Structure formats: structure tokens, C-alpha cells
Amino acid sequence: MDQRPIGVFDSGLGGLTALKELRQLLPGEELIYFGDTGRVPYGGRGRDTILRYARQDVAFLRTFDPKAIIIACGTVSANALAELTEENDLPVFGVVAPAAQAAASATRGGRIGLIGTAASIRSGAYEREIARLKPEARVFSQACPLFVPLVENGRFLPGDPVAELVAQDYLSPLREQNIDVLVLGCTHYPLLSPVIRAAMGPEVTLIDTGKACAKEAAEQLARRGLLAERARGGCRYFVSDSTEDFARLAGIFLGEPVAGGVERVEIEQY
Ligand code: DGL
Questions:
Q1: Backbone angles phi, psi at 232, to 5 degrees
Q2: Cα 249 from Cα 173, distance rounded (Å)
Q3: 72 CA: nearest ligand 1 atom
Q4: What average pLDDT does the segment 226-253 reach?
Q5: For 14, which of 5, 91, 188, 193 could close a Cys bridge (C-beta 3.0–4.6 Å)?
Q6: Cβ-based burial of 223 (10 A; exposed 0-12, middle 13-18, buried ≥19)
Q7: Per-residue b/e over 142-173, b at no fewer than 16 CB within 10 Å?
Q8: Beta strand 92-93 with 111-116: parallel, antiparallel or unpaired?
Q9: Does position 233 have pLDDT exceeding 80, yes or no?
Q10: How far does residue 46's CA lie from ligand 1's centre (Å)?
Q11: Global pTM?
Q12: Where are the alpha helices (DSSP H) in the chain?
């Protein structure tokens, strides 16, 4: 048993896809969420910058003495998981391996689509993990750099003409490859699920990386005896830019007001 909080971070809103799932799976846990909204998007940046930002995000979360860190960001998981794991003496969970596992189990025809940020696709991390789990599978990847700004600006609801146009443009090459599974390799993308589903058709299984990661982390924490014993935990939210914008969009996505409000952090100090 461990009553300490779990730290969760992303470059912005995307990590809420993991947080939402964690709250359902582990309602007794205290969660600390950090969204680096002042520096989003990470996905167009070089690996050095992503690593520097991620180290600062972890350093901030560590001020709460967490029992584990969840990297609820495909870009950081794909580019910096090894370093963050090595540098921290606590469990660090990323999204790549659980999402690859879910994709490898879900595919019937072995044709898997992968979408993510430019930095995630460039890293080859998802492809390597899928190849390890299912060597015969073929992966068709596509970077979708405009998806994250759409989400961060609240343009993720079904019927949004800009989101629909961008999704058609990015996803039509994948449709032509007859994939049966599509890995949403960035935690922002599940917010666009209805739009992505409409573009891909109902026969394609969408893999939500944030959800897959939350499930894996919950299982691992239970196995290691690290779960908290309390009926209901809370969640504190921190961002590095406007707290109002985050609270509004997070409330829409979580389907409930962001209880307790959102606090601002000067992340460059960490
Ligand atoms: N949500 C993130 C990811 O999973 C970050 C996107 C970005 O900052 O570019 O990749």
C-alpha cells in the first residue's frame, strides 16, 4: 500500500485521455496532472528539446513525492522513456509499449496504421515495439502535425469543418492501405476520435494510447502492491500557461468541471 500521489504529464490536454481512464480504474488514487501548455506542441521539436522539457516536467512532479510517473505523451514516451526511467528511482510508465501491445492483439490482417506527431513517427519507437511483438505485421505510419493545435484550440468536436478536412487529408492514404487497426500514437488524438472514426470507417479499431497506458500502469501498480487505500482520491491540475483555457477545455473533455481549479507553474524554473 502506498498513499502517495501518481504524477501524470503531457505537453497539454492530451494526457487527460490517460487521466480520465486512471480515475475510472483507480478511483482511490490522488493524481497530479501537469500539462505544459506554455510549450505545446512538443511534436515538432528535436529530441534534445523534448528531453529537456520532459526532465523539467518530471522534476516539477517530483516535488509532490509521487510513487510513480505516467508519461501521458506519445512524443515524450517515444523519445525519452529510456532516459527518464534510468534517471528516476520510481516506476515510470510510457504509452508506446502498451499501445503496441493493444494493436498487436487487435489486428486480424496484420496491417496496422499509426498516426502521431512528427517526432514520434521519426523515432520509429512504435514500429520497433510492434515488430518485436508481431514480426509479420506491416505498419503504415503518418505524421499528423495539425491535430495537436486543433485539439489545444478546442477544435475537436464532431462536425468541426476544419478538423474534418484535416482528418480526411491525413487519413485517406491510410484508408487506401486497408488497415484494420489504427494506433492513435499521440494522446491528444482520442479527443478527435469521432472525427477520426468518421474518416476511417467503423471497421477500423482505434487504439487509444492514453487508455492503454493507464491500464498497464494500474495493473503494474497493483502487482507491486503500490495502490492507495482510500475510497476517493482527488486530482490537482497544473499548467504552464492560461489556467482558464485549460479548465474550460478539460471540463468539456472530462465531462465535468475541473474540480479544485487549475494552478499555474513556471516550468522553466525546474
Ligand atoms: N500529447 C502528445 C503526444 O502524445 C504531445 C503532442 C505534442 O505536444 O506535439 O505526442
A1: -145, 120
A2: 30
A3: 4
A4: 93
A5: 188
A6: exposed
A7: bbbbbbbbbbbeebbeeebeebbebbeebbee
A8: unpaired
A9: yes
A10: 13
A11: 0.95
A12: 16-25, 47-62, 74-87, 96-106, 118-123, 125-133, 147-152, 161-175, 193-200, 209-223, 243-254
Grid coordinates belonging to 162: 476544419
Calpha distance 26→220 (Å, rounded): 12
| Residue of 33, 40, 147 to mutate, ligand 1, most atoms within 8 A of C-beta | 40
Euclidean distance between CA atoms 136 and 125, whole angstroms: 17
Based on the residue annotation, tell me whether 213 is a catalytic residue of this protein.
no
In this prediction, residue 152 carries a pLDDT of 87
Measure CA 20 to chain center: 11
d(CA 166, CA 146): 7
pLDDT in tens, 28-54: 999 999 999 999 999 999 999 999 999
**Residue range 101-115, pLDDT digits in tens:** 999 999 999 999 999
Say which amino acid occupies 169. D
138-143: strand order across its sheet: 138-143, 111-116, 181-184, 205-208
- Please choose, from the candidates 146, 148, 142, the residue with its C-alpha nearest in 3D space to the C-alpha of residue 175: 142
Measured at the CA of 149, the angle between CA 47 and CA 212, to 5 degrees, comes to 70
